[in-house]
């Protein structure tokens, strides 16, 4: 089954107009969605809706708008949308998005487009085509997400939806990073996740907060079936992270989503590079611990403000002591002005990554990822060997 030729033609004709108005579309859509359906604030990570002080759209607003723009560009070659469908489906499964949410989103999207573009442009013919295109794609997501849920539910130690896990340990890694160790409340087995994946926490009873808070956190240790470890940075004005750091205690039981995510280790390459900054070290450490045992050549390049804000430093140095084929480079931004080797530059990356055939995994703040990809392309690394994940929705173009 595919879209009709007339619908494809209309969607493609809409592409430049949607691209031009994407900021307004993203803001209008989410403003309308949460005004008319406030219960959905219990599903979405509302921190990603937060607009900038200058009124710029929040990251999730732009992610929605950019996905719409991409879809209208590639509606006749859906294979180009494969990575988008994979990433979004994983996120939806982790957050508990249900099939009945799709019609709500569709109706709201049509209304937002009419508000932004006007009824003369977004006339009945255009609206009908966009509706066909949206619900066609929605069916693809619904089918894929159901298959993912079923597969995870049927895996050894797997589950569907939310499972109660007990916090069995809580370890301060730095003054702003804390690790949380979870095990099943029922004593059962847990699904063995892939290194690089994340889980979700659902926090329904934070004092003074009206809606349930749902957050994704990367699993920060090598996979095992007995306990999961996440490591959380305490964010300024971070509702969920502050609650976890200050209020959640060993013995508490939390609702946890099944591990998800498509940013995972692929061991088809003997030379692996992990390029991380800040709390972006978490999925990379999980990957590195696994690949270090498989005789791959591993290089970690990690950027932090200083030693005091550097999680897992000792844990990584201990990994080096056991004779694994690993190399580590620390880059501290507070040393940049007087230590040239601490600078995050294309020249330093050239020296630190001598193997042009390396596969490179990148995780960290949006600006760090943007700079990293730019530098690596300047060094002629192939696109297929540059793999990255944003914490939160992808940055806008």
Order of helices and strands: HHHHHHEEEEEHEEHEHEHEHE
Quote the average pLDDT.
91
Main beta-sheet annotation: 6 strands, antiparallel
Helix content: 25-40%
Oligomer: single chain
User: What is the strand tally?
Assistant: 11
Low-confidence stretches: none
Q: Largest beta sheet: what is the strand line-up?
A: 4-3-6-1-2-5
Proportion of residues in extended strands: 15-25%
**How far apart are the termini?**
31 Å
Compact description:
The longest helix has 31 residues, at 124-154.
Structure, described:
The chain contains 11 helices and 11 strands. It is an alpha/beta fold and 397 residues long. Helix content is 40%, strand content 19%. The strands form 2 sheets. A 6-stranded antiparallel β-sheet has the order 4-3-6-1-2-5. Strands 9-8-7-10-11 form a 5-stranded parallel β-sheet, with helices on both faces. It is globular and about 65 Å long. It has helices spanning 5-20, 22-36, 59-74, 82-95, 101-117, 124-154, 239-246, 281-292, 313-321, 346-352, 366-378; strands at residues 162-174, 177-184, 198-203, 213-218, 228-233, 253-257, 271-277, 297-304, 326-332, 359-364, 386-390. Helix 8 links the parallel strand 7 and strand 8 (297-304). It starts with a helix and ends in a 7-residue tail after the last strand.
């Amino acid at each position: 089954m595919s879209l009709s030729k007339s619908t494809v033609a209309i969607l493609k004709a809409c592409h430049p107009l949607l691209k031009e108005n994407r900021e307004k579309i993203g803001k209008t859509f989410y403003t309308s969605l949460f005004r008319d359906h406030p219960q959905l604030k219990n599903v979405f990570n509302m921190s990603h809706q937060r607009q900038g002080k200058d009124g710029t759209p929040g990251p999730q607003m732009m992610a929605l708008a950019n996905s719409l723009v991409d879809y209208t560009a590639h509606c006749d070659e859906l294979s180009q949308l494969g990575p988008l469908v994979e990433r979004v489906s994983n996120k939806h499964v982790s957050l508990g998005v249900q099939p009945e949410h799709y019609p709500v989103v569709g109706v709201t999207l049509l209304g937002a487009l009419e508000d932004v573009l006007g009824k003369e442009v977004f006339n009945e013919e255009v609206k009908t085509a966009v509706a066909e295109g949206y619900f066609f794609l929605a069916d693809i997501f619904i089918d894929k997400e159901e298959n993912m849920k079923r597969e995870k539910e049927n895996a050894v130690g797997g589950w569907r939806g939310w499972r109660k896990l007990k916090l069995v340990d809580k370890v301060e890694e730095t003054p702003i990073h804390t690790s949380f160790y979870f095990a099943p409340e029922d004593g059962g087995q847990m699904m063995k996740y892939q290194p690089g994946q994340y889980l979700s926490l659902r926090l329904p009873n934070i004092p003074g907060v009206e809606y349930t808070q749902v957050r994704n956190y990367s699993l920060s240790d090598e996979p095992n079936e007995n306990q999961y470890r996440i490591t959380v940075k305490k964010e300024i004005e971070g509702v969920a992270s502050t609650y976890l750091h200050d209020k959640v205690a060993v013995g508490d039981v939390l609702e946890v989503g099944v591990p998800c995510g498509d940013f995972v280790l692929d061991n088809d390459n003997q030379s692996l590079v992990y390029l991380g900054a800040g709390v972006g070290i978490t999925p990379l450490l999980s990957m590195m611990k696994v690949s270090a045992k498989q005789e791959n050549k591993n290089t970690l390049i990690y950027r932090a403000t200083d030693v005091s804000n550097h999680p897992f430093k000792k844990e990584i140095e201990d990994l080096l002591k056991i004779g694994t084929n690993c190399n580590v480079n620390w880059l501290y931004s507070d040393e940049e002005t007087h230590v040239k080797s601490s600078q995050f530059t294309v020249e330093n990356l050239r020296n630190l990554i001598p193997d042009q055939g390396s596969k490179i995994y990148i995780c960290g703040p949006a600006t760090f990822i943007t700079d990293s990809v730019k530098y690596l392309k300047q060094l002629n690394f192939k696109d297929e060997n540059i793999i990255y994940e944003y914490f939160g929705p992808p940055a806008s173009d």
